[in-house]
Amino acid sequence: MLDQRKIELMTRLAFYEQTDGKKDFKISEYYRRDYTSLHTICSILWVTVGYMCIVGILILVVLDDLLENLSNGVILMLGGMIVLGYISLVIVYAIITNHIYDEKHRDARQRVKKYNHNLTRLLRIYEKENR
User: Fold this and answer.
1) How far apart are CA 125 and CA 91, in angstroms?
2) Is residue 28 part of a domain?
3) For residue 3, which of 21, 38, 47, 83 sits 20 to 30 Å off, Cα-Cα?
């Protein structure tokens, strides 16, 4: 005879494995700190590339005016603004990215724990049947 609880549990487990399980298993292989650090570093690298592209385009746009007013003070002020803008952007972006990936890891880990709990319940059901 078919056990309704066992069928529901197996269906729930199979559905999780086919949907969120694939991502969650990969995420939960990492320690939380390693996962968030890896993604934060990758994000900082991409922000750096994007910032360099934007600054390069802006410099090309205002290059004509920049060359007319070229002096040491203007170069220092422009360089300082670029560096401070970069540092502040990286700090803000790193904090936000760290928070997002920390939550993502925590949520995935909770779903994997629930999955493991359901696997344990299924194992107990099979053990009761074999007695």
Assistant:
1) 51
2) no
3) 21
